Amino acid sequence: MSFQLPSVRKGLLQLIFSGSFMKRWNDKLRPVELVEVDKQGHKMITAFALFILNSGKMTPEQKRDLAEDIILGGIFEYLYRLVITDIKPPVFYQIKSNPEHYRQLTKWVLEQLEPRIQPLGTEFWDKLRAYLEKPDNNTLAGRILSGAHIFASSWEFALIKGINPGDVELKEIEENFQVLLQEHSDLKGMEDLIQGSHEGLGGFLNLCGRLRFQKRWSQTPRIPETSVLGHMFIVACFAYFFSLSVQACPLRRQNNFFAGLLHDLPELLTRDIISPVKQSVQRIGNLIKEYENQEIEHRVFTLFQEPVYHELARRLRYYLGSDGASEFDNTIIKDGRITRVTWDELQKTYNKDSFDPKDGYLLKVCDNLAAFIEAYTATRNGITNEQLHHAQWKIRNLYQKKPFMEGVHIGALLADFD
Q: Is 244 domain-assigned?
């Protein structure tokens, strides 16, 4: 692979979205449809929280490196999972325990991924290949991802275990989860999750998990249906990829991923209010935002009163918008204060870790792209209605003549979706 500047293509966006089709616990009776992209969203929000709690004594550089390893590891594991699809976990772990079998499977997985990953450049590809070729990762980042994965899977298991009487596998699955969770109990925050606490971290992640029940476009039939939780993970991945394209500094691309992962958290409280309602009258949009802020304070930040959670609450506020800024504002932290800046200023002056930069504009682009792909995929799957066609037209029209920056043109990318 020759050197190239990273670029984002249609095939990669569709690959990330394809987790919306991947059913989980497909051999069990389920109260709701459980899909891979939702689980990944819950896993990575958990990993974000564990990262904050377990990095308190690190230097800024150590924190930055740990966050990068967690984000890349989460994306790489998701890409691997998308390719192996229907291999059940017990079978996969058997394959993984045999180095030669795992090597053969990974070689095939990388062959499938290469055409879609290649445009992101040599550096990303080399990191992906190195990560997947090493079956066990006992670093702190690897253990945080493993603990987050086990917690998110066990959270889903709790939904189905009571409605599958007589299933002989359930007892063994439950015991296995308990053992695996205990193996990660040394991580700060895991004890809360093991005990099933509804306060602190446990209460917060339980709220986040419930976003898988909340469907987007709730009055518009679509195939596949997508949840708010899955959408947040998709936007986070898109934001990271475009951050590579605009050559964002490490902390900026990490902030963009985490901001994407959390940007719709207020919909825990207001549900998915469609844009035409928010935008129909400016005062309505302002009222909704005001209500969201009040409810977030009441139902989320009250969970983080203990000193151990102060840094987690502070980062959540930064990503969700505070001090008059919203999640879609470009922001930096300068002289200890959150400051709004233009995208050009962010790109040319503040693209440095020392400013803790976050791209609100890029995040909004990724939010719109995710909505476009939801509508586009539904129409390609035979669902046709005015709302889906209008959404595609509106987003195409928005970016048709607006270059994002040199080398990145959203209109040209959308033109590939014929």
A: no
